[in-house]
Amino acid sequence: MKFFIFWAVAVCLFGVWVVDGFLEMNEEEIFYTEANASYYIESKAYNPNNALLVGLTLIKSAAAKGAVCLDGTLPGYHWHRGYGSGANSWLIQLEGGGWCNSVRACVYRKTTRRGSSNYMEKQLAFTGILSNKAVENPDFFNWNRVKLRYCDGASFTGDSEHKAAKLQFRGQRIWSAAMEDLMSKGMRYANQALLSGCSAGGLASILHCDEFRNFFPRKTRVKCLSDAGLFLDAVDVSGRRTLRNLYGGVVGLQGVQNNLPRICINHLDPTSCFFPQNVIGNVKTPLFILNAAYDSWQIQSSLAPPSADPAGYWSNCRKDHSKCSASQIQFLQGFRNQMLNAIKGFSRSRQNGLFINSCFAHCQSERQDTWFADNSPVLGNKPIALAVGDWYFDRSGEKAIDCPYPCDSSCHNLVFR
Fold this sequence. Notes:
Oligomer: single chain
Protein name: Pectin acetylesterase
GO biological process, one term: cell wall organization
GO molecular function, one term: pectin acetylesterase activity
GO cellular component, one term: plant-type cell wall
Keywords: Cell wall, Cell wall biogenesis/degradation, Hydrolase, Secreted, Signal
């Protein structure tokens, strides 16, 4: 009885995600966007299992370079040093957290940890791909592992300002200042490096992949991983393009155009070049795409946001896939097909990797239960951590694509309250 009372209190105080029938404590991150005048909620599972806590380091040299958060404060990162065989190996994880596409949205954002280091946690739990335990993270546990905090609102690509609103859009400068700082702290001697990122950070890992490669000598093994970063230029349930409208605002407001891949800008408009489907085919550095075929964030915020569904027909379905009608599932199968079409050319390259599972999930590399645990999601009996490791170290080629929903019983599907 005490156990159930505890969880009842926890639900009231913190909110929960139901993951395959299990309640998990979570921390909610709420991002305001004017794309649909509502709140987007992206949650990170809390790992109570003695997770490593790593302190925040502010980049002191960033101010002189104008590399500051939306509110002008210093950017920062969390770094746990590598040791033993991983002493000269580096993993950079780019934090996610949506975007801001208007002055109003960015002014709101600068009063949160996504726009100001004043509000950032002084310590973060390192789990999943950042874990320091071999049993939780077999290939990268003893590397130098860095989580670069996200406080610009344009996937580390903007470079402009709005003086009247006292907003600094300096994502590109933050990226450059962080890399320069880490290079001075030993990353320049890396014999192997992996640039990773989740959600908006997963998009950033694609956009910055070749730039990251160029920081190192050719002899250094350098690859990139994008987790839940394959945002599609998809038609929403109303026939409009919610995410394209959002991205158009981000690109125009934050001066993103000059920092997008030239090969894309030369033949497409800047907003199109912020969509990874138009960029991945030209990334020269080996790239691994990890994505749920039914990405939870895209369903809630791009495909069926409230603005595209004023009658609320999709309200239950977008929160819980088990409540979707047959026609709604058919619509979502169309989204999966669009994702598979977007990666066709990318998948032909031997150097690239894929793990596309038919789950209703978002960001599977940072959560321990989805990255590497006894009941982690698998494709071909291989969990995500081993698939990424086998690809990175060239132990085997990894291009795994799941059959359509509902065939995968290993998913940790997300259900939103």
